[in-house]
Amino acid sequence: RPRGPQPQGLADSLSTCKVLVVGAGGIGCELLKNLVLTGFKNIEVIDLDTIDVSNLNRQFLFQKKHVGKSKAQVAKESALQFCPSASITAYHDSITNPDYNVEFFRKFMLVMNALDNRAARNHVNRMCLAADIPLIESGSAGYLGQVTVIKKGLTECYECQPKPAQKTFPGCTIRNTPSEPIHCIVWAKYLFNQLFGEEDADQEVSPDTADPEAAWNPEDTAARAAVSEKDGDIKRVSTKVWARSTGYDPIKLFNKLFKDDIMYLLTMDKLWKKRKAPTPLDWQQLEVSPNEEAPASGLKDQKVLDVWGYCQMFQDSVETLSSQLQEKGDDAELVWDKDDPPAMDFVTAAANLRMHVFSMNMKSRFDVKSMAGNIIPAIATTNAVIAGLIVLEGLKILSGEMETCRTVFLNKCPNLRKKLLVPCVLDPPSANCYVCVSKPEVTVKLNVQKTTVLSLQDRILKERFGMVAPDVQIEDGKGTILISSEEGETEANNNKFLSDFGIRNGSRLQSDDFLQDYTLLVNVLHTEELERDVEFEVIGEAPDKAPPPQSNQEEVNSITNGNKDSAQPSTSSKGRHHLRPLTSNSAAVATGTKRKYSETGESSAKRPRTDQSDAADDEDDIVALD
Amino acid sequence: MAATKDSKEQKYDRQLRLWGDHGQEALENAHVCLINATATGTEILKNLVLPGIGAFTIVDGHIVSGEDAGNNFFLSSDSIGKNRAQAATELLQELNSDVSGNFVEESPDKLLDNDPEFFHRFTIVIGVQLPESTCLRLGMVLWSASVPFLICKAYGLIGYMRLMVQEHTVIESHPDNALEDLRLDRPFDEFKSHIKSYNLSIMDKKDHSHTPWVIIVAKYLERWLSEHDGQPPKNYKEKEAFRQIIREGILKNENGGLEDEENFEEAIKNVNTALNPTKVPTSVEDLFNSEQCNNITAQSSSFWVMLRAVKEFVYNEGSGSLPVRGSIPDMIADSQKFINLQNVYREKAMQDAAAVSKHVESLLQSVGKPPESISEKDIKLFCKNSSFLRVVRCRSLAEEYSVDSINKDEISGLDCCCFRFFSYLI
């Protein structure tokens, strides 16, 4: 076999060194191809996902016949067909599984991320820091992409820069007073789970009687009770139980959701003093007055149907989903998937009917899908470029030339220096990072009387600080164990409040993730003044602010001096889909709302980083390196 | 048929969100020719076959060598000794059954000797690792046939690419951050009377807070113009004063505090862009002045015929403005008010497109072509995109090699072409 352009020493080390590829999606497929062609012989690849039809436009190791199979496994088999001499190990598994401990990571000379979500990126970042293995991080979105290198002690880690929190919507906006299509889409996704999936108390869809804005007078209660009786008193049973009792009758469901519940909302008249009140829909009335069908051209998904069209879509999808549920057996649950047609139809129909009820303009299935699924556009070309850059950075690392590594951005158009690819010097680790410094510490503002142990674990330690299985000990001199990662040991604490354990202002909690070999000291700052729907705040981080500008841009082939690179704004194809912005200036919302990425120039500041990550649930090549 | 369309929509979902259905249509109508199925060549074709071009044809007279099998993912050791075009076609075809793969086991030079017109049929020809002489010969043939020619070379970690095309016209350029076309500074009659149909001072609270911001700005602008000799707010100070006037229009509650009127907030936020004067962008103005626009012949492509018609429209019915685009952004409003406003713009856009269509008809007639040779649908699309039209022109390879232009400009001087070549050195 011919040698590539590498010197003999490097070629030898390629054939012996072991590398790990995390993710076998858009970037992962391209990367596997590049690795085997470059002469890497020992490759392990892990991905928990299975192949979907919408992957086939770019994940070239997969074909139609592979739909539903393990990405890692099929990627391995396809790559071996082309290059039988390589040795590839595939894991159809989550990288956060404790089997992949620090020892596992230490087997590799190099780890390459080709991931799609922030949680997994955080985790691999920590594992590589703990194992002290160099990590190449990557991401892509549409025509844009980025590759960067992370090495403990030398560079910023993945979590050195604060990232914008994912925007959430107050419960009463979703349940009572939606004002934007996204509120209706979120509601419809919750409704899907309430009816067919895993019921979650945080995903209620019925009118919220505790809405502080509604502030009922006692005399209103009579009116409320009257309506309440009519709607079958569904308050006392769960939505799912009620739906089951009707045999998932689409018309009964429809009339409850879009007529009775709305009439109930109308009784909360304080809500409608300043707002336009919703208009209930009635199946029987709609049925007898069918609207004229306006046949539009273009793709079917991109048309906006009339109300009756969505009624029918609602009916059809409820019927399909309930029979799917029935086939699965008694306690079965469906999982919402944007690429599952009946599930997507259901959300499209329910969201649009609610939009109509609340006087919003309805949206096409295509648009609803983009917002509901946080879809990030993806093409083979971008992924191929990014995967190529990953290998180039990898070769530098393996040649012992870590100092020449760069973070590289792929632009949509050449910048003012006529560069499509923009390399930037890597930053040193941040002294304020709560992950890669030697003794990580954070201060969290919360109300100890209102925060439960479970929400400390799930919302703060897992979601916010990226731990997988935390153990928490109170530094109270007694070493009280608050949370144990051993199953069954501290479950009894879950619904108790922090104050029940003597935690107060100034308390220190030592949180430990054994798998990640990571300890975080949490200082508690008690407060009773948090905004509505805010559970806690992390001090010293302005999550919605961009990282401070740093002038470390490499002056490569500088043609024009002091000329700002105008970063190309993100792509939107005729307002249909809007890219999540490559910026941390704006809170990344899972909405598909149009935002531009800031015009930060390469000469004055580091290009803003991307975030979309966690928003997107199962895209494989979603960007963004932070 | 419907089923295949559905499954295509599903398969191509992630890219449709990037280039839309017209972009996809253009891709599906494309027939791409690749000369030389090298590692670079097959990589390029892979990235075109996956998103679903209509067809490709590989032209390659080489036999697959051990080196090819080693560095090309789409050639295996089994294919050593076979023709390279054929072997690569087989594997590339597997990537997407919607694409028709073809191959010609011949060198491009032979084809140029025997049948140069062979290359006319392609949407684009991509030549990889071609010797200079072949590039020049083929470049000449393709230049005169107006077929785009992309030359690529790769050596180790260095690469080069160069596009040659006389002219490439773009109707849908998918601009980022395009300004809306609202005509607040030059309201058309129908819009004027629509504005009149609103009276903010006698509305109830609900209607007041559900009036689209475009109407609010238009109302207050009318007032401003009457108080300022017909001059709109121009500088920051005046715009700020204008915003203040709008702010004062927000309803007060019983206690004298401001009501929460998001539509007014939206109006205030949009003052800056909404007051941008409506004008023909200079890039479009330049196209109006070009030779191809002013000299319409039977050979003129429909792009130029439509451009000329739009120009006629601007100088006549449009009184200096392009056809109304007809779309408005999402805004806070109740459905009925929003739809009414949308219809005002839509109907005007239809009228304008109809006027342009008349010009197209007479232009076609003047060069002896039937009026139906350009469809209404195309004219509408053209009008909608008339602010964003683009024309890309490159220098021919022959010109680049000619004595006159040698050293005239630096290697980066291909400014005429938007696809400048990029190289990335590590």
UniProtKB/TrEMBL annotation, chain A:
Keywords: ATP-binding, Metal-binding, Nucleotide-binding, Nucleus, Transferase, Ubl conjugation, Ubl conjugation pathway, Zinc. Residues 551-573 have a biased composition (Polar residues). Zn(2+) binds at C157, C160, C433, C436. Residues 541-626 are annotated as: Disordered. ATP binds at residues 23-28, 47, 55-58, 71, 94-95, 116-121. There is a cross-link at K163, K235, K412 (Glycyl lysine isopeptide (Lys-Gly) (interchain with G-Cter in SUMO1)). Residues 596-612 have a biased composition (Basic and acidic residues). Residues 12-417 form the THIF-type NAD/FAD binding fold domain. The active site is at C172. InterPro entries: ThiF/MoeB/HesA, ThiF_NAD_FAD-bd, UAE_UbL_dom, Ub-E1_IAD_1, Ub_act_enz_dom_a_sf, Uba2, UBA2_C, Ubiquitin-activating_enz. This is SUMO-activating enzyme subunit 2. It comes from Nothobranchius furzeri (Turquoise killifish).
From TrEMBL, chain B:
The keyword Phosphoprotein does not apply. Pathway: Protein modification; protein neddylation. Signal peptide: none annotated. GO terms for biological process: protein neddylation. Residues 12-126 form the THIF-type NAD/FAD binding fold domain. One of its GO terms (cellular component) is cytoplasm. The keyword Transmembrane helix does not apply. Gene3D superfamilies: NAD(P)-binding Rossmann-like Domain. It holds the Pfam family ThiF. Keywords: Ubl conjugation pathway. GO terms for molecular function: NEDD8 activating enzyme activity. It comes from the Eukaryota. Belongs to the ubiquitin-activating E1 family. ULA1 subfamily. This is NEDD8-activating enzyme E1 regulatory subunit. It comes from Nothobranchius furzeri (Turquoise killifish). The gene is NAE1.
